[in-house]
Amino acid sequence: MKIFNKTIEFQTQKLFDFIDITEKIVNILKEGQIKNGLINIQTFHTTTAIFVNENEPLLLEDIKDNLNRLAPTNLNYRHDDLTIRTVNLCDNECINGHSHCKAIYLPTNVVLNIIDSKIQLGQWQRIFFAELDRAKKRMVQIQAIGE
Description:
This protein has one domain: Jelly Rolls, CATH 2.60.120.460. Helices cover about 20% and strands about 35% of the residues. The protein is built from three helices and eight strands; from the N terminus they run ββαββααββββ. The chain has a five-stranded antiparallel sheet, with helices on one face. It has a three-stranded antiparallel sheet with strand order 2-7-4.
């Protein structure tokens, strides 16, 4: 059994920057030379997500609208009240309670089958990285396991 790991870094542009990373993942899988097994794609951030869906612009807008209804930016989040919050603080702390609340509705990783050196995706399925906060430098780790 082989195990192949790779971490990719990129800069997001804005809230709801939905980045189709499918081709990047396909190329990484080629590097790993795993014919049959599993591939895990995982974000390192609490205000981002990895999901599989259709890359259709109107659908992506619907997903954004849905997430905004679930966790609007204009609510008062205790996480954002820096007069009472005492943990996980850093310099230039951003006000992003809405981003964390949006993230709970989406996965931090996806695991997909590899058969005959190909990631098994349906006709319209694509792999997305979702920025749920603001423009930031982000990292995604890929691990493929198999033969």
